Predict the structure.
Amino acid sequence: IESPPMPPRSELLTVPRRPEFSDYLHPEFTKRIRPGSVKTLFELGGHDGADTLQLAEAFAADVHAFECHPGLLPQARQRCASHPRIRLVEQAVWDTDGRIPFYPVV
């Protein structure tokens, strides 16, 4: 399977980095999404759950957040536990079933 060619860099949407937003919560991104059009989100790498909460609120959507880092799970559990639209999945995401090695990024 061949991927389509990337557009020239000048045609890509570029926005200044703002530390108060994750890339997918940046207003330049979210303003392009029709309110109410997103019903379910899959967050692959929920980290500590902070972005997960923001995603659930920003899009009023169900969020399935996947995180497998044992050092991050306690905080993610605490942040997401009481939110009715968030499901924390304590597993890694990969392209095949089975066990894979985990190399934490610090």
Observations:
- The first helix runs from residue 27 to 30.
- The radius of gyration is 16 Å.
